[in-house]
Amino acid sequence: MITLRSKREIEKMHLAGQLVRQAHQRVAELVKPGITTAVLDQAVDDLFSDAGAIPLFKGVPGKIPFPAATCISVNDEVVHGIPGKRILREGDIVSVDTGAKIGGWCGDSAWTYAVGEISDEAKKLMQVTERALQIAIELLPVKKRWSQVAKEMQSEVESAGFSVITTLVGHGIGTTMHEEPQVPNYDSREFRQKGDFDLRPGLVLAVEPMVAVGREDLYLHGDGWTLSTKDRSLTAHFEHTLALTTSGVRILTGEG
Predict the structure, then answer these.
(1) I need a labelling partner for 149 at 20 to 30 A (CA). Which of 95, 134, 139, 143 fits?
(2) What residue numbers bound the domain in which 19 lies?
(3) Does 92 map to a domain?
(4) What is the pLDDT of residue 222?
């Protein structure tokens, strides 16, 4: 069941979204060759703690409860990387995904960062993936069904010669991190028949295209969390929490 949010509820979600935005600002200031992923995570964890917020990722059940406030995934790692002693190196790209709950409402956002000077291929991958997210922002107010938006996102990725990760999708968000509906970054007949939904004011979605340079096939690391591309190709991940209102799209994890 999809829950539509009131203007007042969206305003509360905006507070959570802005805290997550601050977390990404802090990460952006810190990312450089020689820093560990643990340092990035600690900075975000401290920010949430100081604000009296709950880190949404910490303690999520799995092979082990997820131990951090952020998922930090490097190069061929798509999502759910566990921060630790890994040192970022010149030329890496690192995706940082994090979420917080404050005042009973959630915000969730991911961004991919360049570590020093990166390859032209990595730059193109990041540009295309971010553009897929921007397409969603632009089309949410003008399309009638999510599948129509997802089709355009998929077209942007595939026309660049890259692959959409189809085994991972976005989601509704509100008082909990993962709510209905599921929000794929691609179109399919099965989704149109069984999962598609109308785009109506009050809808709040975490839209998060994940894109690979090579094939989309993934494998799970022994930690039970980290997912990487089987062919070790580079991946990127961009995500915003978006609220569809009567006056357009509000980027709850963006500026303003």
Answers:
(1) 95
(2) 7-251
(3) yes
(4) 97
Please check whether residue 177 lies inside any domain of the structure. Answer: yes
Instruction: Report the alpha-carbon distance of residue 128 to residue 64 in Å, rounded.
Output: 34
| Contact of 239 with 89, CB cutoff 8 Å | no
For residue 39, the domain's CATH number is 3.90.230.10
Encode pLDDT of 74-118 as tens digits: 999 999 999 999 999 999 999 999 999 999 999 999 999 999 999
- Known binding-site residue numbers: 80, 97, 108, 171, 178, 208, 239
Residue 256 lies in a domain: no
Both tokens assigned to 124: 């193109």
Distance CA 206, CA 203 (A): 10
pLDDT of residue 22 exceeding 70: yes
Binding site for substrate, residues?
80, 178
Q: Is the pLDDT of residue 256 over 80?
A: no
Numbered residues of the known binding site for a divalent metal cation = 97, 108, 171, 208, 239
The domain tally of the chain equals 1
Instruction: Answer yes or no: pTM beyond 0.85.
Output: yes
> How far, in Å, CA of 169 to CA of 4, rounded?
20
pLDDT in tens, 211-221: 999 999 999 99
